[in-house]
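SEQUENCE WITH STRUCTURE:
===
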Amino acid sequence: MTTQRQALVADIPALWELRTRAIRVSCASHYSQDIIDTWCAAAPPEKMAALLAAGGGLLMEEGGQPLGFAILNLETGELDAAFVEPAQQGRGIARQLLAALDAMAIERGFDRLFLSASLNAAPFYERAGYVELRREIYPHRSGIQLESVLMEKTFPCVRQEERCST
């Protein structure tokens, strides 16, 4: 049975392993092996624990095994991470996680979310309602420069103080 729950600081090791597998498989079509190796070698950022402790992380599991996760910065509205186990892609896991984060954002009064998408993920985010603002070079903390797409999703009903449905 598939369940969704709040991701906890204690989940970070499992989430990071999932993230690394997802990058190795999903990003190989858009980034060089050197970039992927450096990207994957990076340890979890210190801010990850704070974002999870604040309640911005969601985890989808099946039989106690993580299938995917997403993290929203509840202070800025930045979608900080969204990854699905490569063998589980195509099941709607990321779509469910993003819908739950949208509801969380709307409940907190955000009228927009934003993210820096990897090149391979940009089409998925477009299907989820995000629009491209610009192509950019994201300075990853590992020292690499990642080609990415700055995207945003707006919730006009929040601005108009109407009830949104996700």
Q: What stands out?
A: The chain is about 35% helix and 30% strand. The beta strands are 2-6, 57-62, 65-72, 79-84, 112-118, 131-139, 145-154. The chain has one domain: 2-159.
